[in-house]
Design a protein that fits this description.
- α2 crosses α4.
- The strands form two sheets. A six-stranded mixed beta sheet has the order 1-6-3-7-5-4, sandwiched between helices. Strands 2-8 form a two-stranded antiparallel sheet.
- The protein has a single domain, classed as Spore Coat Polysaccharide Biosynthesis Protein SpsA, Chain A, CATH 3.90.550.
- The model has no long low-confidence stretch (mean pLDDT 84).
- β4 and β5 form a beta hairpin.
- It is of the alpha+beta class.
């Protein structure tokens, strides 16, 4: 990462403050999403699909499912595609075709392994994340700030290779204790604002 790229990250920039510092992997992951959003925002098509590098076993139905989503979502929307073994998120169903659903969740969930991103949504997210202070999926939960319609699609048509390794690091007992206390407090603040 260049210093210019790294300068997009400024700890404790937004409220509620994210209680942990990001490591280089988390910063790089966020910058990769911003690069994908830039390509979508500056492209000539209304939607783009973004996969993180650990996505595997994409179903043969995926292309038809994505085409259907693009026909029922709007270019100002961000659609999270749930991975297999992820519970459905409670929310209002916007569109349905057979087993395929597009919903507006009551609370935006974590994870950003795969998504369908509208061109207008990509532009707004790009502008809003000129400075960021938390992981990309955690930032996306802050819909009350970025104002991008956050939707979720099911059923899952892909898997990932396993849990993310981006934020794994060795922590001292004191650091682990801090995380165990700070994480639920932070999540309560986000839930109250969602």
């Amino acid at each position: 990462m260049s210093q210019q790229e790294r300068s997009h990250y400024q700890p404790r920039f937004l409220s509620p403050a994210y209680p942990f510092r990001l490591n280089d992997g988390e910063i790089g992951c966020f910058l990769s999403h911003r690069r994908a959003w830039s390509i979508i925002a500056n492209g000539s098509v209304p939607f783009g699909i973004v996969f993180e590098d650990d996505v595997v076993n994409v179903s043969g139905e995926f292309a038809a499912h994505a085409a259907w989503l693009a026909s029922v979502a709007s270019p100002d929307s961000y659609v999270r595609l749930l991975k297999k073994q992820t519970r459905a998120e409670p929310g209002d169903v916007i569109a349905q075709q057979g087993s395929w659903t597009l919903s507006k969740p009551r609370r935006v969930g974590l994870r950003a392994a795969a998504q369908l991103v509208g061109r207008e949504a990509a532009q707004r997210l790009l502008e809003w994340t000129e400075v960021f202070d938390r992981p990309v999926d955690t930032a996306l939960q802050m819909a009350w700030l970025h104002k991008v319609p956050m939707l979720v699609a099911g059923p899952s048509l892909f898997e990932t290779m396993g849990a993310s390794t981006v934020s794994r690091r060795r922590l001292s007992v004191a650091q682990r204790l801090h995380r165990e206390i700070a994480r639920p407090l932070y999540r309560l603040k986000v839930a109250a604002l969602s």
